[in-house]
Amino acid sequence: xAGVSQSPRYKVAKRGQDVxxxxxxxxxxxxxxxxxxxxxxxxxxxxYFQNEAQLDKSGLPSDRFFAERxxxxxxxxxxxxxxxxxxAVYLCAxxxxxxxxxxxxxxxxxxxxxx
Amino acid sequence: xxxxxxxxxxxxxxxxxxxxxxxxxxxxxFYALHWYRWETAKSPEALFVMxxxxxxxxxxxxxxxxxxxxxYSYLYIKGSQPEDSATYLCADSGYSTLTFGKGTMLLxxx
Lengths: 115, 110
Prior knowledge:
The complex is a heterodimer. Chain A is mostly beta strands. Chain A contains no helices and 11 strands. In chain A, the strands form 2 sheets. In chain A, strands 2, 4, 5, 6, 9, 10 and 11 form a 7-stranded mixed sheet that branches. In chain A, a hairpin with a 6-residue loop joins β4 and β5 (44-50). By secondary structure, chain B is mainly β. In chain B, strands 2, 4, 5, 9, 10 and 11 form a 6-stranded mixed sheet that branches. The interface between A and B is medium-sized, with 27 and 26 residues.
């Protein structure tokens, strides 16, 4: 079946520009996660949804970052007034349920470059 | 160990070689340990989820072991093939999130 998809795959933004990154999770998956992977680092947690509820946003680095999942399926990660330090790969993952041993299935990521 | 750490950072082996790498994680408040394989331009692929001390899992030529008391997991690849070239990530599972190491980048030359 279809996996997690993300769009766009690549995005080049000028510093100060707003960007929106989209994630389509696996159909029926309750939980959705966003991670940020900077160059040379492992993916780092940004935020977590269970259905439409954002249960944890402790990893969002600043108030310029905003995520939503209004109907409990597709999610959008928005970054306002992008800065060079926002350049990274943004990964989305979904799982059938939340919890410790649930496998998270990842999309291919959106590679964001801020000039 | 306060964070998830992986070693080596990178590894270059010849086709047919067997190899292994290490993931270290905080042994207190352990819940689960995940291994992923991430090939360039593809999605990270889940390999194993491990929870029990002494657990050993196998998928084809890849296997993993878990020691929760001392906080480490080993990933083994037997008879490496060029298609095994990828970054291998491990992650410590909290209640709802994963804390990743930086990964081990494996290159297998024909």
